[in-house]
Design a protein that fits this description.
With 575 residues, the chain is an alpha+beta fold. Helices cover 38% and strands 22% of the residues. The chain is built from 21 helices and 21 strands.
């Protein structure tokens, strides 16, 4: 019995020892855990919070919405639409590289190429995978739940009018920065400023919560252009048809508001679609109406006539003897198609006499002729502010030879842009007042600059009406119901070794309605092929088509309605 009791006591002691040991162990463990908790929650709190923030808090860009470009009536020419861009943190994506082919399939990318891009960028934390996806595509990407794959909201530029306004509006690059046209010229106005925010992300890189706004995005400002999209469409359609009909190399049309200097339409052929980046080549997207220069041929003759009238020595009825149908200046013989004999300045313009206008120019002082040309804007940039605009070419009179003054009279040895020539004609239509060219819609018209006397401008305009009437060279520019003032031009193109005998530029420049001009327009067709190549046959009909519809769209009242028979009026009243 005694031995059994001792055994029980020993067993009890061992049990108590074990329990004590276990209790001590748990006590020490609890103490250790408590100490660790104190260390983490109190002593190392700031360090751990910093580490957590480093792993889960991210600074993200807030893209600014680029301003909208519209025509003068509010029709959109360039708008920004929201898109998503997929980017990756290569370090985080590396463990799931086996799933990259699934990502590549959704994005229509080469899987092996994408894997190589990721593995070569392991030292980076940001790598664009694909830019500008639709929201649906971005949602499919995020549904894969790949670590390190993120989506960033951006904006993509869209041009509703496409190639109709492509040359004028221009385009942006993939980062939404203006590269050409108005997008470039007014990039500072349109772009705005991106913002930034801090977001909380989970272990897969998905945004969980917006923590704070670091800097709000400043949205871009809208831009209201001077363009009337209705007239722009009309000019585009008419010019395209003409280029195809005459199998020409290229062409341009510019339409200006005579009373304000605003550009209502500006189109070129061939053109490009700014929505298709594969078409971005300088040959296609340059705005020929502003950047390309040409010798204006006979379309410059009204400016020579204006210089003669400004001298005070000539009137529209002044006579110039063009017999025997040619004139020799130095070694060059300048000819008319036939001998017109003694003709007035009005007839010289109406019949486009090279001999007559040459003799007239040679009677003027070189400085006087040059000053008139410069006041009309030749040899100077307009105020359009368009990137890459050309100033044309007008040599100073100190460098002229007699032949220089002679050839200037009928448009050779001087170069202009279609926009410059349109501005010069607009000055004739506004009573001799030159308004700055504006590609922006104006709330209030500029006063302009008086470059020639109002009487001179009126006289030249009336003389230009004879060009379009029967017997003149520009009859195909006539518009039913309206008086038209304008001038044809046909110029040989310069080639290596001299002027080509089979390549021409066809031109028509004019005003409508002639009684009180509202519109000035210039049509330039480069290298028309076939039997028809004169400005009177190729460019004049294009002018007529554009003016006819434009005047109707602007509700400009006709100034050449046919006279009514008094007898028929009385008969109608008696009924």
């Amino acid at each position: 019995m005694k031995r059994g009791a001792e055994t029980k006591n020993q067993t009890a002691k061992r049990f108590v020892g074990r329990v004590t040991l276990i209790l001590v162990f748990f006590a020490l463990l609890a103490t250790a855990l408590l100490a660790r908790a104190v260390q983490l929650q109190v002593l190392n709190k700031e360090f751990l919070n910093q580490q957590a923030d480093t792993r889960h808090l991210r600074r993200e860009k807030i893209s600014a919405h680029r301003g909208t470009i519209t025509d003068r009536n509010g029709e959109p020419l360039a708008i920004s639409t929201p898109v998503d861009s997929v980017w990756a943190n290569p370090r985080e994506l590396a463990p799931a590289v086996d799933s990259v082919p699934k990502l590549a399939r959704i994005l229509n990318l080469d899987a092996q190429l994408l894997i190589r891009r990721i593995t070569r960028s392991m030292d980076k934390e940001f790598l664009y995978v694909k830019r500008h996806l639709s929201p649906d595509q971005a949602a499919d990407v995020m549904a894969l739940k790949l670590p390190g794959i993120n989506v960033q909201r951006e904006y993509r530029r869209y041009y509703p009018a496409g190639e109709v306004t492509g040359h004028l509006v221009g385009f942006t690059n993939i980062d939404d920065e203006g590269q050409e046209g108005l997008e470039l010229a007014f990039n500072h106005w349109l772009a705005g400023e991106s913002g930034a925010k801090r977001v909380l992300k989970d272990r897969l890189g998905r945004s969980v919560e917006n923590v704070e706004s670091i800097r709000p995005a400043r949205q871009g400002k809208d831009l209201r252009t001077s363009i009337d999209l209705r007239i722009q469409y009309l000019a585009y359609r008419t010019l395209k048809a003409a280029i195809q009909s005459y199998n020409a190399e290229s062409g341009s049309i510019v339409v200006l508001d005579v009373q304000t200097g605003e550009v209502l339409a500006m189109v070129n052929q061939p053109t490009y679609n700014p929505n298709d980046r594969s078409q971005y080549s300088a040959e296609r997207y340059r705005n020929r109406a502003i950047t390309d220069i040409f010798e204006p041929g006979s379309s410059i003759k009204p400016l020579i006539i204006a210089a003669a009238l400004e001298s005070g020595d000539f009137r529209p009825s002044s006579i110039i003897d063009t017999a025997p149908g040619y004139v020799t200046v130095g070694a060059k013989r300048i000819e008319d198609s036939r001998n017109l004999g003694r003709v007035s300045l009005t007839t010289i313009l109406a019949r486009s006499s090279n001999v007559g206008v040459t003799k007239l120019a040679m009677l003027l002082q070189p400085d006087q002729l040059w000053q008139t040309m410069t006041r009309f804007g030749l040899g100077s940039l307009t105020s359009s502010g368009f990137p890459g605009e050309s100033a044309g070419l007008l040599t100073h009179y100190n460098h002229w030879q007699p032949i220089s003054q002679a050839t200037l009279a009928y448009g050779y040895g001087v170069s202009v842009t279609p926009l410059q020539l349109t501005q010069a004609y607009a000055a004739l239509g506004s009573g001799g007042r030159m308004f700055p060219v504006s590609l922006m819609a104006l709330e209030q018209s500029n006063d302009g600059e008086q470059v020639i006397a109002p009487d001179t401008a009126t006289a030249v305009r009336r003389m230009l009406e004879e060009v379009v009437r029967p017997g003149g060279t520009g009859t195909k520019a006539a518009v039913t119901g309206y008086r038209i003032a304008g001038k044809t031009g046909t110029a040989w193109k310069f080639a290596a070794g001299g002027y080509s005998e089979d390549k021409y530029i066809s031109i028509f420049a004019g005003l409508a309605p002639a009684s009180d001009p509202r519109l000035a327009a210039v049509v330039v067709i480069d290298e028309p092929s076939g039997e028809l190549y004169y400005g009177s046959d190729v460019a004049a009909p294009v002018f007529a088509d554009v003016m006819s519809e434009s005047l109707r769209l602007l509700a400009v009242p006709p100034d050449a309605l046919p006279a009514r028979d008094p007898g028929s009026v009385m008969q109608a009243m008696s009924r």
